[in-house]
Structure prediction request, 722 residues.
Amino acid sequence: MPADTKSVPPVPTPATAGADDAADASEREDAGRLRRAAGRWETLLLALFVVLLPVGQAISPQFLTSDSFTTGSLDFSEIALMALPLTLVVIAAEIDLSIASVLGLSSAAMAYLWNHGQPIEAIIPICIVLGGLCGAFNGLLVTRLGLPSLAVTIGTLALFRGLAFVVIGDDSVTDFPSAWTDRAFGNFAGTAVPNVIVLFAVLAVLFAVLLHFTPFGRSVYAIGANEEAAFFSGLRVKRIKLTLFVLSGAVAALAGVVISLRNSTAAANVGIGFELTVVTAVLLGGVSIFGGRGTIAGVVLALLLLGGIQKALLLSESISSYWIQIVTGVLLIGSVLGPNLVQRARAARAHSSRQRGVWPSRPAAQRNPPQEEKA
Amino acid sequence: MTADAASPPPQVAGAEARRLADWVFRVRELGIVAAFALLMLVTAIIEPRFVTADSLRNLALNAAIFAILAAGQTLVIITRNVDLSVGSVLGLAAFMAGDLLSSHQSLPIPIVILLGMLLGAACGALNGVLVTFGQVPALVVTLGTLYAFRGVAFLWTNGRQVNAETLPDAFLNLGTGSILGIPTLALIALVVVVVVGQALRDFRSGRELYAIGSNPEGARLAGVRSERRVFAAFLLSGALAGLAGVLFTARFGTVDATAGASYELTVISATVVGGVAIFGGTGSVYGAALGALLLQTITSSLIVLKVDAFWQEAAIGALLLVAIAFDRLVGLRLDARLRRRSVRRAG
Prediction:
């Protein structure tokens, strides 16, 4: 396969104004390559992450230690867990902002059930089922009533968090059995990798297989790209979307269990505001907010990058950790703005060269280059 | 083609459809007013102290800042965009106002308000440029600037906090004083809501925002300068968030970098409860302001009724869900009615 790509003859560079045809062909070739490169957002994320490693080390000598990996990845583990199903939801052109509240409700339910004498082995599955039900509630409102998921999940964001406080109030539970809290906090078989990250890795592989190698995953892309077309090709759009919301709720509840055990504290106010961080990670990972585009690999790389930056800034003594928010915001906007501007510059150049050569009399009225590209 | 002769001139049919739509919106706003009145009544019957002047004043003060934010948010949401950064912009402007007045006691208050609005407008302009020129989805842009502006606020304050003692009394009076028995803040909010509301209702530029929101491509083809209008909507939303920030400082006196944190979702909830569709094209500033008032009343009346404070958030979430479900059902029925009407005409 690599030999194949190399065997393509090098594109001649447009040297003279007379070689219009060649120039045009090369522009098209260029545009194609650009699109493919833009499709490989993951490459850029990986490059950024590789750059981050020495920079982080320069910021703090503790950055490239196993200790910093352990604590840094633990701090980010719940956000990472919730990002996996949200990736699928966003690819299907929906959104779930209620995840952090489901996490809180799950934590509150844990505290409630523990106070009522349930064994932890029973509590965990109950919480995950509860999260699935929360997701189903979102999903039914979106699919059966046809309500926009953005509005629905802003509503359930308040509703589920409110219910969490109704269940347990200001109380918190801190006396979970140490066997379980150690398990959530501890490392995997003597390595520096926390157990929680092993759990994340397993789920990441499962979600990657589900999204990239199953008919279900292909349907998710199809729905995100064009819901109507997907419906008329016989996909069960509503059922698939409902499944995605249930998955999102269930994993958010699992994250609630994890964070409660990891911190040995279950309470209703756990994880307030996490939802926007998770959305940021997903979008930074190259998933289109309009659906139809994105990969699990991209999101995992975005999580590594965000987690790495956060850890580096936290370790630093000279740089204020307040920069975390600024860097996060700039990265998020840049991840969409950068490719847009490059594409626009290319299109503008292609446009002006065409004006010079083939259609000299064409009016310069087309003011929307990206759309002209598509046409 | 014979049906053409039988059907009335299209202008008449259009006017009729517009009347019908107008009527639905008015019913929608009346619905919130009714819910508000019912809530007040029930609370007042159970706890008469709820309708004393003092408690009503507090209610108006609390709703004022959210009503101003909701007015700005309405402009943006109607164009099928969203502004998540309002809470962070509020925080920046609030701290700037506090910081300025602590060090320059004699600075005239209108100047401070103007500076706050300018700062907010600058933030809004950045959002607007990224959305229109950069063609980045508004959700992505304003989620990014939500973080970035808040980060700037943290860097700027650097852990400091502005206290009421260091602020001039004249400024604090703005937040707590009243004119003819009506709190000054509520009056300011009322002026903002009426000005923005009328402009959106009657001005050509205001109507164009609706056109952009209900059919972006159609609006562009009809000659609406969409990019300029969307930019203006973000600019105004930012400026109003800046104004809200200055008023926040006047009202509370104590400001740190977290001022207005997580306001964005409350403001969007108020706007959507007020009948502004999250996907643009419908709703009014008046509805959004009423939504803000209703959410604030729920919070206050639950406190008065001694309902567990924990129910507040759940109640607001449930109300939002009911509101959008109601809008959806009304929208479906309106569609059906308009379709039946046009079928009758054609036949």
The CA atoms of residues 251 and 310 of chain B lie 25 Å apart. The beta strands of chain B are 178-179, 182-183. Chain B touches chain A through 46 residues (CB under 8 Å). Residues 10-46 of chain B form the longest helix (37 residues).
